[in-house]
Amino acid sequence: MSQEAIKAAVGKLAAAVQENPSNGKLIYRGTTEWKGDVLCHNQVGRHSLMVDEPAAFGGGDSAMSPADLILAALGSCQEIMYSALASSMDIPLESVKIELKGNLDLRGLMGMGEGEVPPGFTDLSFETHLRSSADEATLKKLIDAVEAQCPILDTLVRPIRVSGKAIINGGTEYVAQAAG
Questions:
Q1: What is the three-class DSSP state of 83?
Q2: Residue partners of 146: CB distance under 8 A and separation at least 6
Q3: Which end of the chain is more exposed for a tag (fewer CB within 10 A), N or C?
Q4: CATH class for the region spanning 65-180
């Protein structure tokens, strides 16, 4: 899709939300199903994705791991926002590449952290490489806009409510202490 087509699509979407704010409220739904070992099939809308783990964690390393997907989600979301916002701001982009890094201590994941080591990432970092004929001040405005408006970056840095429950053998509902 060309920059003009992206600009038109984003402009049309923005106008629809401006006209009626309820047009901006989306609900994402997905399912995931364990396929044995540590392999999972995920379905979100009409798109599917397999998730696996490396051999060191009992997997076949046939697909990205859940931790890999967090990095991919953050980098992809930022690149999409660069494309969309650069188009709407009439900023030409030649390339966008994001290098991401997440630090994870397996002691937390394996219950060996004794409350001191979290099971998830302890930190995430990214480095964005932009190429554009636009001046530096314009690109800084674009960077600020992307980092302020990127939904996945926002989700990762802002505390959000997450709730969950388990249905045991098709009947009993259970809410784990950690999910409460």
A1: helix
A2: 78, 81, 82, 85
A3: C
A4: alpha beta
C-alpha to C-alpha distance for 31 and 78, rounded to whole angstroms: 24
Break the chain into its structural domains and give their ranges: 65-180
Q: Of 54, 3, 51, which is closest to residue 30 (Cα–Cα)?
A: 51
DSSP helix, strand, coil percent of the chain (3-state; round to 5): 40, 25, 35
Place 179 in a pLDDT band, splitting at 50, 70 and 90.
Answer: low
Task: Give the pLDDT confidence score for residue 168 in this predicted structure.
Answer: 93
CA distance 151 to 6: 18
Mean pLDDT to the nearest integer, 135-145: 98
Band of residue 74 on the pLDDT scale cut at 50, 70, 90: very high
Q: What is the per-residue pLDDT across 21-47, written as a single tens digit (0 to 9) for each?
A: 999 999 999 999 999 999 999 999 999
Cβ burial, residue 175 (10 Å; 0-12/13-18/19+): exposed
